[in-house]
């Protein structure tokens, strides 16, 4: 439209808006990108006539928790954040093989991301396990990235399992 103005000395606003909408429609519908689940984004996308493709919501499935083998201590840990970047907390629960509850802890982490909360949960649990003198420790948590990172980056004799 800038070239049109430059060479024709006039611009038709409705034609410019129509051209922008048409080009945005073509580019948006040929993209494989996913939209975030918010109303502003949804309204903008609908204004341009773009078909929405939202992030798939995964349905939770039940996991049957089992006590650890004799001689082992199981530590279930998790980190949680309100929103993407918000108030965060983490915590762990310690269980022995004879169905005995050993202990638990929560930790407030101030403002963090989800991954930071997940990592702190495991780090704090490792520190607690060392303070308690625990040697055979089995970790369970719900973050594959945490699992892969600790297995690849540590030579610590812990057993890690992603739930």
Task: Characterise the protein shown here.
It contains five helices and five strands, in the order αααβββαβαβ. The protein has helices at residues 2-8, 13-30, 39-47, 114-132, 144-153; strands spanning 73-81, 85-96, 101-113, 137-141, 159-162. The mean pLDDT is 76. The relative contact order is 0.11. It has two domains: 2-47, no CATH class; 73-162, Ribonuclease H-like superfamily/Ribonuclease H (Nucleotidyltransferase, domain 5, 2-Layer Sandwich).
Task: Give the name of the CATH superfamily of the largest domain.
Answer: Ribonuclease H-like superfamily/Ribonuclease H
Order of helices and strands: HHHEEEHEHE
What does the main sheet amount to? 5 strands, mixed
Query: Which CATH class of the largest domain is shown?
Result: Alpha Beta
CATH-level-2 architecture of the largest domain: 2-Layer Sandwich
Q: Give the low-confidence spans.
A: none
Element layout with pairings:
Elements: H1 2-8, H2 13-30, H3 39-47, E1 73-81, E2 85-96, E3 101-113, H4 114-132, E4 137-141, H5 144-153, E5 159-162
Parallel strand pairs: 1-4, 4-5
Antiparallel strand pairs: 1-2, 2-3
């Amino acid at each position: 439209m800038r070239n049109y103005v430059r060479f024709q000395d006039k611009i038709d606003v409705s034609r410019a808006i129509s051209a922008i909408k048409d080009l945005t429609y073509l580019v948006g519908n040929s993209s494989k990108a996913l939209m975030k689940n918010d109303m502003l984004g949804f309204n903008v996308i609908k204004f341009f006539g773009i078909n929405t493709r939202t992030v798939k919501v995964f349905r939770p499935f039940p996991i049957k928790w089992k006590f650890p083998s004799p001689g082992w201590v199981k530590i279930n840990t998790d980190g949680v954040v309100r929103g993407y970047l918000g108030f965060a907390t983490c915590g762990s629960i310690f269980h022995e093989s004879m169905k005995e509850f050993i202990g638990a802890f929560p930790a407030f982490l101030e403002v963090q991301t989800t991954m930071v909360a997940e990592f702190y949960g495991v780090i704090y649990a490792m520190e607690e396990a060392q303070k308690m003198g625990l040697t055979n420790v089995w970790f369970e948590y719900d973050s594959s990235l945490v699992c892969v990172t600790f297995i690849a980056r540590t030579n610590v004799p812990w057993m890690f399992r992603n739930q």
